[in-house]
Design brief:
The protein is mainly beta. It is built from five helices and 21 strands.
Length: 418
Amino acid sequence: MWIILGVLLSFSALALEPSEKVKGAKILKVLPNNILLIDRGLEDGVARNDHIMLTNEVVGYASRAICIRSSFTTSYLKLYRIPDVEAISLDYQYTLVGIDDREIPNPVAQLRDRMQSTGDEKKVEKKVGADPFLVKRDLPERLTERDLLKATGPEKRKLFVERVLNENQLKRDLDNYQLSLFASPFTRQSINEGESLRYGFRGGNVASKYRLLTGFEQQQTKLKDPVTEESVSTRSTKGHAQFIIDHLKPSLSTLSLINYNSMRFSSLATPKHHWQVGPIGFTWHLYESKSWEYLDLSYVPLYDIRVTDTITENGDRGSDRTTGIRHGLRLAFKNQINERVALENILWVRPFQDMATWKVERDNLNLENDLKLIFNISGNLYFDYNFIYQKDKLWETLSGLPQSNTINSLNVRYDFNL
């Protein structure tokens, strides 16, 4: 008898006290009737009948709930007040804060000390009559598998576009913007045995939903002119911007991008100007883990505009302009080998489709593979080895250069927050 009483007293001591906090809680599963399964239980101080407030660093106060069942490692929380339905997401980590029982509204107090179904039990025969535990107040009808919840009650239902494009969330996400400055004291490419100095910047924000990635790069090159065999200096410029709405669904995000490229070999610019614009595409998240930051497959249709310098047999200079559609396919991954070393690879394959004939040119792929081995020297200081393989049919057909090019470079990079 004393042993049983001691066990019961030990469980009661595990309950959350008012203002006591449990950090880092994650939602494992979303069940019907506004019930969440979380990864915190008795060993963390979360016990049945505890009155709990959920908060997170992104949106602040998220909801209030009552714990209706608890095991050593997990608990079921019945949500009864949700001021902002978008604050409930499988992506967030939550802090559980104990609340005094006196703050439980009277209609909700009936949930205390009653065993409720979590929805995980085996189905039984339906009971006739109304559900005595149904809380109508300001709750949504159900919780989906993501953070796009349908609000009920007096609040006007939001359109899908309004839920996806949340202005306040966008401002919060863009506040935490990180910039990387890099320089490559050594760069060597296979075309014309060029040795280059490369420098530029990359930027991106650490965000829960909206991501903006930017980059700009210039490369000064000394190489041998393929005609005169004389050494000449050239310059290339690259820029890109990407906008991502992360995890519209558990394995799906949007991708919009703009790429710019200008490259001059000898006296010919090939290309002189090259724009690729992808208004909307999608990224499928194939795999994620603690060491694999991402393994993604993306598709985005690109409107391709390219202007290239040409020289006729008579020596007259001219330009060639091509427009069309490219089907952008990207396979990307990043693996954190250890605390200081990471491996990143981005493969782009972009077959060209003529807008006049709608024929896809399978040999005009505008292929590029960017492999990067990243070393964290100290803090925000990084040292990268970069190997880039490029294949572009138009280098040969328009400028008489080889179709493929390889670039080896050593980069020194420093990251800082704006």
